[in-house]
Amino acid sequence: MSQPIRVMVANHPRLMRELIVQAIIEQPDIEVVGEVKSEGEIVGAVEGTHPDVLIIGLDESNRRPPLCDTLIRRYPEMKILAVAPERNCSVFYWGSFDIHEIPVEASEAGILSTLRGKG
After folding, report:
1. Beta strand extents in 37-97 (DSSP E only)
2. What is the CATH number of the domain that holds 56?
3. What is the pLDDT of residues 55-81, one digit of tens each?
């Protein structure tokens, strides 16, 4: 059997955190590794537990919380689910990178141009 998905639930009102945890805890392939009450505690808790997924509150703007950028840069393998149940809205964030390619002229000028970012 594969390792369970490690989830941390953070900065929702207590009742919402409890409902999310209750839904998750009954799943055999998902493990709750922590609960965090305030946004100020999230970074330290993530550093200590290294969850696969962090579930946080989504503010009214529906814009990506700045914390997402900070955490995904630091922990690129982690995913973040931002939930706004009062608006029936959720957004899933994750980091990725693409591998790009362009043909390079097989000459000194082509190689130097590519190294300088002009390829």
Report:
1. 53-57, 79-84, 89-94
2. 3.40.50.2300
3. 998 877 668 888 999 999 999 999 999
